[in-house]
Write a structure and sequence with these properties.
By secondary structure, the protein is of the alpha/beta class. Helix content is 34%, strand content 21%. It is globular.
């Protein structure tokens, strides 16, 4: 288990941190998805973002790497404002990031080696491919899959695909790794493998990690800090103990996996059966 700092997070004030969001608002048409978010991500720590589906978690994490740009507000990386950069300038900034997409996002037509070397081909000149082969070997070894270089995604299990995608995410030795629902679709054992890898990479590579998840077991295990979003706003921010004991009923319903009293009342309301009920024979054609 992670060693937790007690109480509400006070280490990353607005303006500090390796990544900083200042008064970020994101709208899609008239819908506000992020509402005035100010947030600093502490270097070398793991920040976990939780919250119900549709609350803006994935939209938030994409703003950290500028896969989405804010409608208003500012984004900084290592003190440099980056939301106003063009795509060419952003590509250089993004080499400092690794991104583990929710589904892994491997290229089905490429081998494991080719998937891992894809970002290297995009961003680096390669004078010696033997060195690249050693790099692939080392990255796969870090996720426990050395020997899988010539496999294709179709031949891998869901957990193995996630681990290959993670090996690709660290191919350029990033300073920041962003994880979007890394344990989704995995059984508890395979989920814990991913949790252990998140801890291992933070420890051995000294990376900064941001993890978006619904999985509270994972959140409690890997987080130095947990942030909860609700309707585009941060409603809770602190270590695991602070979140466990947070007085806000929305926080408690989420972390315990409980339906709210209001929603439960709606679900339990008596309804009337439609009088227009059809039976299988109603669809049979006369022979």
């Amino acid at each position: 288990m992670k060693q937790q700092n007690k109480g509400k997070n006070t280490n990353t004030k607005n303006g500090d941190g390796i990544i900083v969001l200042k008064n970020v608002i994101k709208k899609f048409s008239a819908k506000i998805v992020l509402e005035n978010i100010s947030l600093a991500i502490e270097k070398g720590k793991t920040t976990v973002v939780i919250g119900p589906s549709g609350c803006g978690k994935t939209v938030l994490i994409k703003h950290l790497i500028l896969l989405l740009r804010p409608t208003s507000g500012e984004v900084y990386f290592k003190g440099q404002r980056i939301d106003n950069l063009n795509e060419g300038q952003l590509n250089q900034i993004r080499t400092h990031y690794g991104f583990l997409f929710q589904g892994g996002a491997l290229f089905d037509s490429l081998s494991v080696t080719e998937n891992i070397t894809f970002p290297i081909r995009q961003h680096c000149e390669i004078p010696d491919w033997n060195q690249v082969g050693e790099l692939v070997k080392s990255k796969l070894a870090m996720v426990g899959l050395d020997g899988f270089q010539n496999y294709y995604p179709a031949n891998l299990s869901g957990g193995q695909r996630k681990r290959v995608a993670l090996a690709r995410a660290i191919a350029l030795n990033p300073e920041v790794i962003l994880y979007d629902e890394p344990t989704t679709g995995l059984d508890p054992i395979r989920s814990d493998v991913i949790n252990e890898l998140i801890l291992k990479l933070q420890r051995e590579l000294n990376v900064t990690s941001v993890v978006v998840t619904h999985d509270m077991t994972s959140a409690y295990k890997v987080a130095d800090r947990i942030i909860m979003l609700h309707k585009g706003k941060i409603i809770a921010d602190g270590d695991a103990d602070f979140i466990r004991n947070h007085p806000h009923p929305i926080v408690q319903h989420f972390i315990k996996g409980q339906v709210s009293d209001d929603d439960l009342a709606v679900l339990r309301m008596s309804g009337t059966m439609s009088q227009a009920q059809f039976l299988p024979r109603d669809f049979e054609q006369d022979l």
